[in-house]
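Bench notes, afternoon.
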Amino acid sequence: MKPTLFLLAAGMGSRYGGLKQLDGLGPNGETIMDYSIYDAIHAGFGKLVFVIRKDFEQDFREKIISKYEGHIPCELVFQSLDALPEGFTCPEERTKPWGTNHAVMMGESVINEPFAVINCDDFYGRDSFNVMGKYLSELPEGSKNVYSMVGFRVGNTLSESGTVSRGVCGTNEKQLLSSVVERTKIERKEDGEVKYLDENEQWVAIPDTTPVSMNFWGFTPDYFNYSTDFFKAFLSDPKNMSNLKSEYFIPLLVDKLINDGTATVEVLDTTSKWFGVTYPEDRQSVVDKIQALVDAKVYPERLF
């Protein structure tokens, strides 16, 4: 069975302004998402599922979904503040979405096969889709509790503009994920070494090949059941309901499932170089990098 690609497109793009998922960055107005989907199709993915906000469905169908007709089946699901388990009510004052794992929960009704989860506004690169597609497609039918994550080499994820925040991954001898520690300031120093600022305000060097999480996960459908159960526990905590900015993130559940021995997460190495648009000034750099890949014949001039 071919795996599904689940694309998180419900974010408001508040830091960048507007719906950055729809921003044309390629030579013919292609979005970053178009390149991810092109790579996924060639890596053997068989279906796309997008989670979006209901209020930009028409715009999304016209500008995005229409491109893929005849190339790959597509489904749309919607993330909303009131999509909560029975017995829970969203606080009236809350405007912030419930987070990435809540978005993943919206796919349960349309996904019955192994699936990968990505951000729509991150350029992940072809090799990352190849390694994830291979892992998911080779899982025995009915597999449970064996998940995966693309571990990007930290040296391939840095910004030319300053420090970045990354989840630095710890692994065991079997390349299974043991920990993810968020480091909010990572950069390449003048001496050429990649370093992060630790809790004691000291710069600590790490190898260029250190795996970091860029929110590219691989799951089997049993993940939905765990998501629902843990979300109920999350909502039952008064501090999460009273904090109008609390979020139910994917790493929150993954960390729990690893620590209680329920599931394993294999860290898949990739040679891909990540880039993305976080702030408006990043845009031209991304345009230039995509054009360079087109010029090098990595991608055709027109994708679809």
